[in-house]
Amino acid sequence: MMNVALKKSTVFQNIPCTLVTGFLGAGKTTVINQLLASKPVDERWALLINEFGRIGIDGSLLASSQDDTVNKNSIAIREVSGGCICCTSQLPLQIAISRLLSDHHPQRLIIEPTGLAHPRELIHQLSAPHWQTALQMQAVIAVLSGAQWQQDKYRTHDGFQAHVKDADVLVINRYTHLSDSDKQTLQAWVTKLNAQVHIIWASAVQAVPNNDSLSTTDIITLNNQLATPSHIIAQQRTININYPQKRSVGLRPPNTVLSPTSRSNSMQANDDNPVSPDIELPYRYHEKQQDMLLAGWRLPAHYVLLADELQEWLLKLPSWQRIKGVVHTSDGWLQINFTPDSLTTSTVASQLDSRLEVILQAGDESDQMDLDDASPVTSAIDWEVRDRELMALVI
């Protein structure tokens, strides 16, 4: 099957392709949404999203945010979930790109890797000979949060710096609280890591604190970069990353018991694959990736959770680093987007199901990055207890 897919992809020549990278919670999705909104009506674009977890949240939110029917029909969105595409074998990336090219014939491809990605390996993969005729790699765009950079635990960590080192363009947002001296220090820090990078200060955030939106001028500048060849791509660098350890389980609905046979079938069907759209709900998985613990839940749309109690429960999870979700609650359908620097909720349209994903800091490695003031999770979490706590919030 793989040979067939790759053969199809070679029919296409020089499809412009752009990477949009950035650390967890930097604001990549906002930048991509604004790029999609500025897409010419008569062009077909494709978006490949790499979710670090396996639930898949960003793709459905991006799809539902495209209100213009004409634009929506000309943007193909595909997700690669269940691990970083730069950390695993190249097969998921090759299959996803090949299918996007052969099924949708896009005139432009945008790739959003997970915030825990190491862009250098992804750049190396996309520089492989079998993509050099199909894809025309354009400027690599990275997004950086000034609020994160201000904390020493971020700016001194290799994973945070990696996005700056391997970028052609750097969009800096959330910097309004920085003094002029701090901004000069930030610019000097960026220049030391990557003297060739073009910096865009997201000027719209000057008027609205914690707003990631770009001004019209910024968007025009970014659009120009979509047609600018990348000097980073040509370097073809590589890096080694550990493979993940995964575990998936069926989740018991309230007041029901999952039979041993059903539980066994559910685990077997999902240990080696991302969550299928047809998986029996409710469902939960958990796994370890690098020095992070991941967990995700998918619940039927008719499960309504207590809104305030749900947010309180999420914020009490140990050493959480990122919480994302779109959930049916007592306050309606809510999009949840929590980082240590920002807690955001907003109403969204009804979805096919509720989805939650959390990333926690593990405590197994002595040299790991401690992103939170709280101690890392050093002992195993009893996920069945967490399941019962979550189910108790269903009305």
Topology:
Elements: H1 2-9, E1 15-22, H2 28-37, E2 45-50, H3 58-65, H4 69-73, E3 75-80, H5 91-104, E4 108-112, H6 119-126, H7 129-132, E5 135-137, E6 141-145, H8 146-149, H9 152-155, H10 158-165, E7 169-173, H11 180-193, E8 198-201, H12 216-225, E9 245-250, H13 260-270, E10 283-289, E11 292-300, H14 307-315, E12 320-329, E13 332-339, E14 342-347, E15 353-361, H15 383-391
Parallel strand pairs: 1-4, 1-5, 1-6, 2-3, 2-4, 6-7, 7-8
Antiparallel strand pairs: 9-10, 10-11, 11-15, 12-13, 12-15, 13-14
Helix pairs in contact: 1-5
Describe this structure in words.
The protein has two domains: 2-235, P-loop containing nucleotide triphosphate hydrolases (Rossmann fold); 245-391, Hypothetical Protein Yjia, Chain: A,domain 2 (2-Layer Sandwich), CATH 3.30.1220. It is 32% helix and 25% strand. It is built from 15 helices and 15 strands. The chain has helices at 2-9, 28-37, 58-65, 69-73, 91-104, 119-126, 129-132, 146-149, 152-155, 158-165, 180-193, 216-225, 260-270, 307-315, 383-391, and strands spanning 15-22, 45-50, 75-80, 108-112, 135-137, 141-145, 169-173, 198-201, 245-250, 283-289, 292-300, 320-329, 332-339, 342-347, 353-361. The strands form two sheets. Strands 1, 2, 3, 4, 5, 6, 7 and 8 form an eight-stranded parallel beta sheet that branches. A seven-stranded antiparallel beta sheet has the order 9-10-11-15-12-13-14. Strand 7 (169-173), helix 11 and strand 8 (198-201) form a beta-alpha-beta unit. Helix 1 (2-9) crosses helix 5. The radius of gyration is 21 Å and the shape is globular. Residues 259-278 are annotated as: Disordered. This is Metal chaperone. Pfam families: cobW.
